[in-house]
Amino acid sequence: MAANQQTQSTRALDGVKILAFEQVLSGPFATCLLADMGAEVIKVERPGVGDVIRGWDSVVRGLSSGYVWLNRNKRSLTLDVKQEKGKAILQELAKRSDVFFENYAPGVAGRLGLGYEKLSELNPRLIYCSLSGYGQNGPYRDVKAYDLLIQGEGGIIATTGYPDKPARAGLAIVDIAAGMYSAVGILLALYQREKTGRGQFIDVSMLDSIVSWLGYFPHHYWHAGEEPARVGMRHHYVTPYGPYLAGDGEYVNLAVASASDWEIFCRKVIEKPELLDDPRFATVEGRRKNRAVLEELIENIFLGRDHNHWLAQLKKAELPYGEVRGIAQVLAHPQVAARRLIREADSPVGKVPVIANALKMSDSEARYERIPGLGEDSETILKELGYDANTITQLRCDKVI
Description:
This protein has 19 helices and 13 strands. The protein is an alpha/beta fold. It folds into two domains: 7-213 and 343-397, 3-Layer(aba) Sandwich (Rossmann fold), CATH 3.40.50; 241-324, formyl-coa transferase, domain 3, CATH 3.30.1540.10. Strands 3-2-1-4-5-8 form a six-stranded parallel β-sheet, sandwiched between helices. It has a three-stranded antiparallel β-sheet with strand order 9-10-11, with helices on one face. Strand 2, helix 3 and strand 3 form a beta-alpha-beta unit. Helix 2 crosses helix 9.
């Protein structure tokens, strides 16, 4: 037994219990990060239906790709929280939990008797995290929110795409940003609780999260009255920067971000040292101001040779560079293999591949155990709460679980 214990990994969040009243993407992303690192996450789902994302597709041998992505290492408890018996079960679990997480619209949890005030009375050490579209206060508090809509409200669509047409970011970056802030907030609150002994309320907003990602754009507006133009695959303020099409139809990605990089690029990569004498391109701001002329020159130069030539030139010059890969190429990337970014997790349809947690900690290895079937842990969880077999059977008959 002792030898077996020595082989088991100790994880950063072993012993932390999270009760997740969650759905779809932003919330499950947050709790998945924490479950990977050892937290016990009980995911509450609707009986017979489950998290709505379970029905988005069936591409993973009958399972939803979104559910597989976001719900490994969790336990699935089906519960009708609109029934008093269901609410009582959730309140009892909250008494035994370190964290209660919910990402429903503001007020929903409270109306169900699962708000912060109620649950913190039952468990003063409870950390309660609410993730919503616009936050718990303000004029937009009750406005419905989806990633796409917040990309528009938060300035992402206006700054993404080409001059004649805006675009959304291809990934659900708002959901992911809000999920990451939620995970960070929960970890900070756990750390603070070690010093104070008290839980607290965490209010995470999708809009807040993505506005905090706007970076230098607000500063250009505040100090220069400038709305950022859409620049396609280029950088808003630095050029040359971005993918350039080579003569064989493949893109080459590069970044020229300093005065020394510009000199190396002109002399050693494109072999046009005369550009260094052009006053229009002498500074970062000058190159930006004369972007149209400079970009046309560089684009024409890159079209003159194939992408392997340019990759070799950039490598020899020791400038930052890369390829533009499709998903198949990314999954076959040698660095992805070296970093063991593709793992396997068990599921109701057997072992399935999953993308690994990006955190790599010397003393806390992420786990990749199981993606739960709908409600597969309900009976076990209820037994842990002290419910006997007859009571559990009755709860099933009453459609509480």
